[in-house]
């Protein structure tokens, strides 16, 4: 039972040795040494690393197949098929609504318990499909997962993965998956719909259907230690068979007010008072996390340019309204209607005084515009 905490690494090392997969052996011995060190057994970790160092030079001399960390490339363009990073827990800030975070933590715990599950003969499928509108944190979620698991993150590069040459895309998919299986990592397939569209789509050529079949076969070939995360903004385009390959499904929507408040607090940091954070979050309904970051960073830049230590309340509100109201750019021509629309968004926030400051007009003018609308409504009845 003492070896149970490291069963996953031991199985991978044995598998790599039996299949003459030297990169796999090296990668998982390195991971095992790291885990032993973290568990308070530096002596065993040093012995493993010393043994590995003694044999590594000989392995490298045996050919390029022994180089396990070299990223695969497209045979035509020679571009890498993935980008690699090693996110750390303290460097990844993830803001999710509580119900989404609960699902994610369950998934991470499920992957982290792989040793115990395997020891009990329980199969695992560490795969997660994330979907929702753009800018809602899917990439950050993948970084968070890799950081929590202490694994490198391999993000597939769609631009090099998809080739114009017949059959090359399917080969690229296979190369990427084979590389991911040769080492401990999280494989992140962003924009999954680009290679996993419905096979009955009449507008697509047979090549794409072959790519989907290849993707399915490669997912099926994954062993229980490769963590797979797929993400898409267009879940309705995915082939039904793709959905069945992922053990966990997580839909991320637009952040609610509590999430928006956390995001503004995170991005505005010391540049805004708590009152401004609460105010911005209350009126930013419909904005994505990416939108909130953009608003925050633009507001901070404006404050610095104007020599202010904190951002201006009206400046951040204007930037939010610019995103929420497409007609905001022509507010000079449409001011009467815009004043009324903004007021109706949230009368408690958009008081007459605040509207006057936002639109650069007098308090009396704002009052006149709103009362004109009210009198007009009265006549309509």
Explain what you see.
The protein is an alpha/beta fold. It folds into three domains: 1-70; 72-251, P-loop containing nucleotide triphosphate hydrolases (Rossmann fold); 257-380, no CATH class. It contains 17 helices and six strands. Strands 1-3-4-5-2-6 form a six-stranded mixed beta sheet, with helices on both faces. Helix 11 packs across helix 12 (274-283) and helix 12 (274-283) packs parallel to helix 14. It starts with 6 loop residues before the first helix and ends with a helix.
Which key phrases capture this entry?
single chain, 381 residues, alpha/beta, Rossmann fold, six-stranded mixed β-sheet
Write the layout of secondary structure elements.
Elements: H1 7-18, H2 22-38, H3 42-61, E1 82-85, H4 98-112, H5 114-119, E2 127-131, H6 138-149, E3 153-156, H7 158-161, H8 168-181, E4 186-189, H9 206-221, E5 227-232, H10 240-245, E6 248-251, H11 257-268, H12 274-283, H13 289-305, H14 313-324, H15 335-345, H16 352-359, H17 363-380
Parallel strand pairs: 2-5, 2-6, 3-4, 4-5
Antiparallel strand pairs: 1-3
Helix pairs in contact: 1-2, 2-3, 4-6, 8-9, 11-12, 11-13, 12-14, 13-14, 16-17
């Amino acid at each position: 039972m003492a070896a149970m905490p490291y069963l996953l690494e031991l199985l991978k090392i044995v598998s790599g040795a039996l299949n003459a997969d030297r990169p796999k052996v090296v990668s998982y011995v390195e991971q095992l040494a790291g885990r032993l060190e973290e568990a308070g057994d530096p002596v065993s970790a040093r012995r493993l690393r010393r043994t590995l160092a003694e044999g590594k030079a000989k392995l490298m001399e045996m050919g390029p197949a022994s180089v396990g960390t070299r990223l695969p490339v497209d045979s035509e363009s020679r571009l890498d098929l993935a980008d690699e990073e090693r996110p750390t827990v303290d460097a990844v800030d993830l803001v999710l609504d509580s119900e989404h975070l609960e699902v994610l933590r369950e998934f991470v715990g499920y992957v982290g318990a792989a040793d115990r599950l395997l020891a009990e003969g329980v199969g695992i499928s560490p795969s997660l499909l994330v979907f929702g509108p753009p800018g809602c944190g899917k990439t950050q979620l993948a970084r968070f997962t890799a950081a929590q698991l202490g694994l490198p993150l391999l993000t597939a590069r769609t631009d090099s993965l998809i080739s114009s040459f017949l059959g090359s895309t399917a080969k690229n998919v296979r190369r990427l998956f084979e590389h991911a299986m040769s080492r401990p990592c999280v494989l992140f397939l962003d924009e999954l719909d680009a290679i996993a569209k419905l096979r009955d789509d009449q507008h697509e050529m047979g090549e794409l259907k072959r790519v989907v079949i290849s993707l399915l076969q490669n997912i099926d070939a994954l062993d229980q230690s490769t963590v797979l995360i797929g993400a898409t903004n267009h879940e309705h385009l995915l082939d039904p068979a793709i959905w069945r390959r992922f053990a966990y499904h997580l839909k991320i929507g637009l952040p609610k007010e509590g999430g928006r408040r956390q995001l503004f607090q995170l991005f505005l940091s010391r540049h805004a008072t708590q009152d401004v954070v609460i105010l911005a979050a209350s009126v930013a309904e419909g904005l994505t996390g990416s939108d909130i970051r953009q608003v925050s960073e633009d507001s901070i830049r404006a404050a610095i340019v104007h020599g202010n230590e904190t951002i201006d309340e009206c400046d951040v509100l204007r930037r939010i309204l610019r995103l929420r109201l497409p007609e905001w750019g022509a507010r000079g021509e449409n001011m009467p209607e815009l004043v009324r629309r903004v007021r109706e968004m949230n009368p408690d926030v958009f008081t007459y005084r605040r509207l006057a400051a936002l639109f650069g007009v007098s308090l009396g003018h704002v009052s006149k515009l709103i009362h004109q609308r009210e009198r007009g409504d009265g006549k309509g009845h």
